[in-house]
Automatic annotation (TrEMBL):
InterPro entries: Dullard_phosphatase, FCP1_dom, HAD-like_sf, HAD_sf, TIM50
UniProt keywords, alphabetically: Signal
Highest rank taxon of the organism: Eukaryota
Stated name of the protein: FCP1 homology domain-containing protein
SMART domains xrefs: CPDc
Name of the encoding gene: Dere\GG14268
Keyword Transcription regulation: no
Originating organism: Drosophila erecta (Fruit fly)
Domain FCP1 homology: 49-215
Gene Ontology molecular function: phosphatase activity
Residues spanning the signal sequence: 1-20
């Protein structure tokens, strides 16, 4: 029986795609229940009222989604074998962009948007990123604050983000990003997440929820996050240069 199914899967691409989408639905289902309303004890409520509302700055590519680009007229190479969530044609690139959401992204955005003000900060170009962000937002209005490539700082051929553009108060801003160079100006505010590989079984977003739930109660997020970075040395140099 297993052999027959195996052969059928190899032979019939359509069946393969169907099975892939069934798998996706199973992966999207989340066994971790994080209540949709924020039921807080009076003590927690009081604690929260004593600290500032925080801004969570989210990277897009390889943090929330990973995309794959197909140039028009070219033979596609290495097309991912899982179903995409969204595609659009980008005339400026003469290419079709296929977008793959990281598992649990919708659930993640639902929860964190209750705890934080969200800002998306992507090193991607605006005309590429904005259709994707509109798709991810799904009309909820939670991803309306956006910063793009033109807002990054270029240094030595790489790009870095300065979270001060999203929020002027470093005590109350966090940056979630897969790239340590893009985080390097704000190492003390950064949470590094591993890059999302299309089709991989990935639980990085859902596993971050308890951590992000706790951080919103901090007076200064850096008191915790500075211990989570391997780039303290670099940010110390930057700070001393800035003074
Ligand atoms: C992180 O994501 C960016 C796109 O935002 C990508 O260029 C980079 O290769 C990724 N990985 C790492 C380890 O930086
Ligand atoms: Mg990235």
């Amino acid at each position: 029986m297993g052999l027959v199914v195996g052969v059928a899967c190899l032979m019939i691409p359509r069946l393969w795609l169907l099975l892939a989408s069934v798998y996706r639905i199973c992966v999207e289902y989340t066994p971790i229940i994080y209540p949709s309303e924020d039921r807080l004890s009076p003590v927690s409520k009081r604690r929260l009222s004593l600290v500032g509302r925080k801004t969570l700055v989210l990277d897009m590519d390889e943090t929330m989604i990973t995309s794959w680009l197909k140039k028009s007229g070219k033979k596609p190479r290495n097309k991912p074998r899982v179903a995409h969530d969204f595609k659009f044609y980008l005339p400026a690139y003469e290419a079709t962009i296929y977008v793959y959401k990281r598992p649990y992204l919708d659930h993640f955005l639902d929860r964190v948007s209750k705890w934080y003000d969200l800002t998306v900060f992507t090193a991607g170009a605006e005309l590429y990123a904005s259709p994707i962000l509109d798709f991810l937002d799904r009309g909820r209005g939670i991803l309306n604050s956006r910063l793009y490539r033109q807002d990054c700082i270029e240094m030595y051929g790489t790009r870095a983000k300065c979270v001060l553009l999203a929020s002027p108060d470093l005590c109350n801003v966090l940056l979630l990003d897969n790239s340590s160079t893009e985080c390097s100006f704000n190492a003390g505010n950064a949470i590094l997440i591993k890059s999302y590989e299309i089709g991989s079984r990935d639980e990085a977003l859902i596993n971050l929820l308890p951590f992000l739930d706790a951080l919103r109660f901090m007076k200064d997020v850096r008191s915790v996050l500075k211990h989570c970075t391997r780039f303290e040395f670099f940010s110390t140099i930057l700070e001393s240069v800035a003074q």
